[in-house]
Fold each of these.
Amino acid sequence: MDNKETAYSPMKQIIREAFLRSPAMIAESSHMSYPIPIFDEGKLRILFISAPAGPDPDIGMRLWSPDYKVVMDPIGAKLLEFTTITPRQFGLNYSPGKELEPATMPPGVDIDQMTMMEEQMNQELDLLLPLFEKKEYALNEKEQHSAHKWKRIFELFHEPAFRPYYLSAGKEFFAWIDKVTGN
């Protein structure tokens, strides 16, 4: 492998393109996951899952089991794959269409704060992607800070019902982030 850095599109652009290029993401009644770094045939990709969803003022965002996946190339933010999925593909033993635990905002956090934190999480992921791709474990202080910050924000805001999907699809990334953050 050469020493050149791969020029990835900013995560904000990858998310926007995933949303705009994927029919399931455009639907008003769907919810898109946070970006999940994965390797597909040895190449770094960004995976999103989409689930039927609907707002409920009493409980937050109602979610059902994810039904689509979107795979993006982080170089150029190109859509590579849009396919249906089932819970069983992620090691879950329930049928498609099952209503899951609703997604809620952490207590004391408003939508503006959540948006700001999600933007910070995506900026940290921009820094972390090349490190993850190279399986770099000896991070400098700035990189360590980014890894800890990404993990802290993710843990605060991710949808609990999607956790098994995140951990199954992104097992390499989550094992890496746990190792570099000492958890």
Amino acid sequence: MKALKITIWIIFSLVIIYILSMFFVFDKKMMITYNFNPDDSLRFSALYPWYRLSPIEHIGSDYSQKIKAELIYFMVRIPPNFNEANLCVKYSDNPTSIKLGAEKANDKFEFVDTKSINIDSQWKKACANFNLRELLLSNYYIKNNKLTFAISAQGINDQNQLTLTSIDLNLIKNYNKSEFKNFYARFKGYIKR
């Protein structure tokens, strides 16, 4: 009987730890990757609107999706208390330039400086940094810990499509000692969201 009680408590503890890990991240860094695999997109929404995209292609173990219009969107569920986000998009080598942005409260997007680097002769990676604290304090739209990002690719159309293979979001948490002083108030504010 005692072994059964211990087993039940261990299972209960593991379930609580799993649930907490879905909402709180205990590390200082977290990488969220979307590889266009429909089965593993817990934190990323699919790209939208659908009519600006080709269907997801599956070749071997790799997935990709082509953009047919200049502007597409996706949402990411971001755990609380991260300060910075580095968004990177891997895309086919194409003469078009890519810009990355985040949604403001008035349904407009603000695009930030985006750096593109060549990975090899076929692929490039465009990256942009976002200060999540400033986004929360300024006029950006973050609801239920979801932030909408945009990818703008100039000159894209049905004949000149751009292939995306992955979207990486690297989240960074920088602690200030003053943050621990008002932990209770911050926790209470998180619960009210």
